[in-house]
Design brief:
Elements (H helix, E strand, L loop, with lengths): L3 H32 L9 H6 L1 H15 L4 H18 L3 H19 L5 H29 L8 E12 L2 E7 L14 E8 L4 E8 L8 E7 L10 H9 L5 E4 L16 E6 L3 H14 L5 E7 L8 H9 L4 E7 L11 E4 L15 E6 L1 H13 L7 E5 L10
Parallel strand pairs: 7-8, 7-11, 8-9, 9-10, 11-12
Antiparallel strand pairs: 1-2, 1-6, 2-5, 3-4, 3-6
The chain binds flavin-adenine dinucleotide and protoporphyrin IX containing FE.
Flavin-adenine dinucleotide binds next to helix 2, strand 4, strand 5 and helix 7.
Length: about 400
């Protein structure tokens, strides 16, 4: 526990930290990578370049300080971070490295404003937060039968098939034909690839797109093409160089964006673009276990040709007699599919006749897409506790309200 003095010092310094938090976290990463260049293999350099990871760490430190007295609000945030860490195999000793450089970065950026008392208070807070994360991560490793820092599991690519004009599905199995850890519908996997151009390894997460299975895993990867920003490193390497028979290094199935099957309340699944992947895993699991559950599926995309796994969705809908599907397409097809109600343009939930007010809601897509749907839902009588979401990058949606 933090002493009341430490707590008030932290709360008093939250505003100044908030003002400088992005400088602090940027300086922190530069400092840590200078002393520990091997950690560049662990962090997503695309997120570093775009500044998103800095914002996520900043958000977590701020949220922790601001809510230190409010464990109920912190719990889901810690859970999400711990799942991400566990998918990456983060070890307790690495907290020493991060702690040392984070505290040094606070001292160096704040200068004289960072008095020894303030630094000691933040040191205590960091370690309290670190211990909470280490404890949750230890539990996750135990549940997955995984050791923090163990050599990553190898899986063999047994099939690759198109999932849309710009997405491929990769089927993965144990190279010796053994069983794999199973996963929950909605979870993801970390995949590590060497990037020869950088002389580094890079890790990315991909949601499972099949129903939970301990023999075959499937992930579906959209190619991130060059636009105003560089082409995506790993998605392009997966599309261009990975072949059937290759082995990939992967972490344990992780993630807390999972289908709640302890209830049979109606379910609203909203996805945009490649954000459909975890929702497809959920649809397939519903067919197996709750085929009569009321499902309202809303998907947004450019056209069905660019909507990953649309052919899967069409088949899955046939196995869910109480499911309704709505598609919002920016370029509607000449021959509209019969399985869905088609709406031109971007997703607008006002186009729906009604959404059951007790629905469990699962959102996955770009941040602007999720912000728009979440805003609409909150303005139309839904409670924040009904809404779960997955961000395909560092969580900038801000779990805490
Ligand atoms: C939990 C989770 C689940 C996911 N599930 C899926 C999934 O099922 N399917 C899927 O396709 N993806 C999924 N993703 C996203 C995936 O992990 C990758 O982020 C995605 O494939 C892009 O990786 P990349 O290496 O190709 O791109 P990166 O190289 O990481 O680039 C990412 C973005 O950063 C930009 N960028 C790079 N350098 C700079 C720079 N210098 N300045 C500005 N911007 C820059 C790139 O242009 C690109 O837009 C998921 C992510 C998470 C966190
Ligand atoms: C108290 C300490 C820590 C906090 C508060 C913290 C916070 C975070 C947050 C908020 C994220 C983003 C989660 C998401 O939304 O996806 C994250 C991801 C990550 N963390 Fe930590 N972390 C801590 C310790 C560590 C340690 C010790 C390591 C190991 C060196 C580490 C490595 C990573 C990596 C590699 C990612 C993924 C980054 C990416 O893919 O861009 N973290 N962490």
């Amino acid at each position: 526990m933090l002493t009341p003095e430490t707590l008030s010092l932290i709360q008093a310094t939250v505003p100044v930290l908030r003002e400088h938090v992005e400088d602090i976290t940027r300086h922190f990463y530069n400092r840590m990578f200078t002393h520990h260049p091997e950690l560049k293999n662990l962090f997503n350099l695309g997120n570093q370049a775009s500044g998103e990871q800095q914002q996520a760490l900043a958000g977590a430190v701020y949220a922790y300080a601001a809510n230190i007295h409010n464990p109920a609000a912190l719990a889901p945030v810690l859970e999400r971070i711990a799942h991400k860490h566990a998918s990456l195999g983060i070890t307790p000793p690495q907290y020493l490295i991060v702690g040392r450089h984070l505290l040094a970065a606070i001292a160096e950026v704040l200068g004289k404003a960072a008095t020894p008392d303030i630094l000691a208070a933040w040191d205590q807070a960091y370690w309290l937060l670190a211990m909470e994360l280490v404890a949750i991560e230890a539990k996750l490793y135990q549940q997955a039968g995984w050791q923090a820092g163990q050599t990553w599991r190898q899986v063999k690519v047994t099939k690759i098939e198109p999932a849309s004009q710009d997405a491929l599905s990769f089927y993965l199995q144990d190279p010796q034909g053994g069983v794999l850890p199973t996963f929950l519908a909605g979870q993801y996997l970390s995949v590590a690839l060497d990037v020869p151009a950088l002389g580094l390894r890079q890790i990315r997460q991909y949601s499972f797109s099949n129903a939970p299975d301990d023999r075959t895993w499937r992930i579906t990867v959209r190619r991130v093409a060059q636009a105003d920003t560089p082409a995506g490193m790993i998605s392009n390497q997966l599309h261009d160089t990975v072949k059937v028979g290759d082995w990939l290094e992967v972490g344990p199935p992780s993630g807390e964006f999972t289908l709640d099957q302890t209830t049979d309340r109606p379910i609203l699944l909203l996805g945009a673009g490649v954000g459909v992947t975890p929702l497809v895993s959920m649809l397939k699991q519903l067919i197996r276990t709750q085929p009569h559950r009321q499902v309202l599926l809303g998907l947004a995309g450019t056209s069905t040709q660019y909507l990953p796994l649309w052919q899967d969705v069409r088949t899955d809908l046939a196995g869910l007699p109480n499911a309704t599907c709505h598609l919002w397409l920016e370029q509607p097809d000449m021959t509209p599919p019969t399985e869905a109600h088609i709406h031109p343009g971007r997703m607008n939930l006002s186009d729906l006749d009604s959404i059951p007010l007790d629905a469990e809601i699962y959102l996955c897509g770009s941040l602007p897409f999720m912000r728009a749907q979440r805003e609409w839902l909150l303005a139309n009588g839904f409670d924040v506790s009904q809404i779960r979401y997955e961000v395909f990058g560092p969580d900038l949606l801000g779990g805490l309200d």
